[in-house]
Amino acid sequence: MATFTSASLSAAAAERPRRSGLLDDARGFWREFVARAFNPYRPELHYMRGPGPAWRAKYGDGAAFRIKADLD
User: Fold this and answer.
1) Are 65 and 50 in contact (CB under 8 A)?
2) Residue 23: which pLDDT band, with cuts at 50, 70 and 90?
3) How do the domains of the chain map onto residue ranges?
4) pTM, rounded to two decimals
5) Which region, left, alpha or beta, applies to residue 32 given φ > 0 means left and ψ of -120 to 50 means alpha?
6) DSSP letter at 9?
């Protein structure tokens, strides 16, 4: 297996203008904020709460269901 390393930047990378650290930080903050605030995926809406259809088929609709509470 061969490993290649280079300490110098390519010509295209060296010619790119440097951005202000503060401007980059603000831009990164807003990009992440918008991505998280308007993300349509809500996993908590998909988690099961209680017994599902297979449990009801096995035990019936009238069977008692109890959730264990942590009393630590």
Assistant:
1) yes
2) very high
3) 19-50
4) 0.34
5) alpha
6) P
